[in-house]
């Protein structure tokens, strides 16, 4: 498959059409094309709304409100669908994810398989509610069926849904179908990376991601797909390559993916890549909104674990345990306590804490590939506590189904853990 030239938008389409395609594909060309669209059609409410959706995180409250007011006014003048799309953007950019999800249900009921609205589908998962996530899955399945198999955006979104549901081979097939229709689909490339992680494909996935990213070095998912490539290198035991990729693609301020890479390396006795500044991690936790999202807080805890910052982890666990939100109190707190126990050299206590969570661990947030690190940590704790049989049972589904599983084999091997001596 030629990921560099295939799927180019035909000539003769409008700037707006091209901009929407690039946005749906998560292309690095989306932002300049959206700006070009707004400049050429300043009264187009949908153009301004989509540009605001793409740039909302960079705008202060006043600028965000100004752009959305203009967008909604102009969209209303154009028609009901345009106004509905602009209102969805208003809700999404204000992080009103439940309201966004509810609005999308109504929007798709009136305008089935509307592709621009699909860029907000992440609202269902962002609600942090299993019922909303399931409802979002059903909506994607229904809209994909209405759009038909020739719709690369909906096939891509369905591939992502299937990957997160654990229907890995179906996800892989759908992702490849979407990429066959439009090889620059970033959603499909991401879904393929998730499926190939579950399959332990290794170098094949790394080579695909390298080719895909080389064709668009400004792709929205550059860092995230580079992280996926690092995980595949870890899977097949190429730890120097994993460190190189982490250091090349992940800025030091990108605490989450860097910590998730380094903790995996430490669990199997390997030297980590360059680490995040522990002072920055403490500042992020102390800042307003530092514990606004459970998965973000979990990633900060992983960064502290990489630094073997036991006292910081204990303090964070106490803070989470006192939180009124159930996911923090009942899930995050014991996970962070377990990390503190591991860094303090008490693997049995860590294993007991993690084992008692069971399926509740899913409430930590993130996606399957990201949550898997909790299982990794439990496996290492069990091995270090001398319970090799339970650890092997825990990872059997991975060691028997993944083509490359050097990482899992090392998790099940008694070895002295590496210390966090990588460079900052």
Key descriptive features of the protein:
single chain, 424 residues, mainly alpha, 23 helices, 68% helix, 0% strand
Characterization of the model:
The chain is mainly α and 424 residues long. The chain is 68% helix and 0% strand. It contains 23 helices and no strands. α1 (15-24) packs antiparallel against α2, α3 (45-55) packs antiparallel against α4 (61-78) and α20 (347-357) packs across α21 (368-384). The longest helix is centred in the first third of the chain and has 18 residues, at 61-78. The radius of gyration is 22 Å and the shape is globular. Mean pLDDT is 93; it is low at 1-9.
How many beta-strand elements? 0
Rg, nearest Å: 22 Å
Category from helices, strands and their pairing:
mainly alpha
**How is the biggest beta sheet arranged?**
none
pLDDT average, as an integer? 93
As a percent range, the share of helical residues equals: 55-70%
Order of H and E elements: HHHHHHHHHHHHHHHHHHHHHHH
Task: Report the total helices.
Answer: 23
Low-confidence stretches: 1-9
Shape: globular
Please state the oligomeric state of the protein chains shown.
single chain
- What is the distance, rounded to the nearest whole angstrom, between the alpha carbons of the first and last residues? 39 Å
- Relative strand content: under 5%
């Amino acid at each position: 498959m030629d990921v560099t030239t295939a799927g180019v938008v035909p000539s003769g389409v409008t700037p707006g059409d091209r901009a929407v395609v690039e946005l749906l594909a998560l292309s690095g060309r989306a932002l300049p094309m959206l700006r070009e669209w707004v400049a050429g059609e300043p009264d187009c409410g949908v153009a301004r709304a989509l540009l605001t959706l793409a740039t909302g995180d960079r705008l202060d409250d006043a600028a965000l409100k100004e752009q959305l007011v203009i967008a909604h006014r102009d969209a209303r003048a154009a028609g009901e669908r345009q106004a509905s799309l602009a209102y969805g953007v208003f809700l999404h950019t204000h992080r009103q994810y439940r309201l966004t999800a509810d609005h999308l249900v109504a929007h798709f009921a009136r305008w089935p398989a509307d592709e621009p609205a699909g860029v907000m589908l992440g609202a269902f998962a962002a609600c942090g509610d299993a019922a909303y996530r399931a409802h979002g899955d059903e909506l994607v399945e229904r809209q994909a069926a209405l759009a038909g198999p020739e719709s690369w955006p909906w096939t891509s979104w369905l591939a992502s849904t299937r990957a997160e549901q654990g229907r890995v081979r179906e996800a892989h097939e759908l992702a490849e179908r979407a990429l066959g229709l439009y090889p620059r689909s970033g959603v499909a490339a991401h879904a393929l990376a998730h499926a190939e992680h579950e399959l332990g494909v290794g170098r094949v996935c790394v080579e695909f991601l390298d080719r895909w990213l080389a064709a668009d070095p400004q792709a929205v998912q550059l860092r995230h797909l580079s992280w996926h490539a690092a995980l595949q290198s870890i899977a097949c035991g190429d730890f120097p390559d994993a460190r190189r990729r982490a250091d090349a693609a992940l800025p030091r301020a990108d605490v989450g993916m860097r910590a998730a890479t380094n903790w995996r390396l430490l669990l199997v006795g390997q030297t980590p890549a360059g680490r995040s500044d522990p002072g920055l991690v403490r500042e992020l936790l102390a800042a307003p909104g530092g514990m606004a999202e459970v998965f973000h807080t979990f990633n900060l805890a992983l960064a502290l674990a990489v630094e073997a910052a036991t006292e910081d982890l204990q303090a964070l666990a106490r803070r989470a345990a006192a939180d009124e939100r159930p996911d923090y109190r009942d899930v995050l707190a014991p996970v962070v306590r377990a990390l503190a126990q591991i860094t303090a050299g008490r693997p049995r206590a860590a294993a007991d804490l993690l084992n008692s969570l069971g399926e509740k661990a899913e409430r930590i947030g993130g996606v399957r590939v990201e949550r898997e690190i909790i299982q990794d940590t439990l496996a290492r704790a069990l091995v270090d506590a001398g319970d090799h049989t339970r650890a092997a049972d825990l990872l059997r589904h991975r060691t028997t189904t993944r083509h490359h599983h050097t990482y899992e084999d090392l998790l099940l091997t008694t070895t002295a853990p590496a210390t966090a001596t990588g460079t900052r």
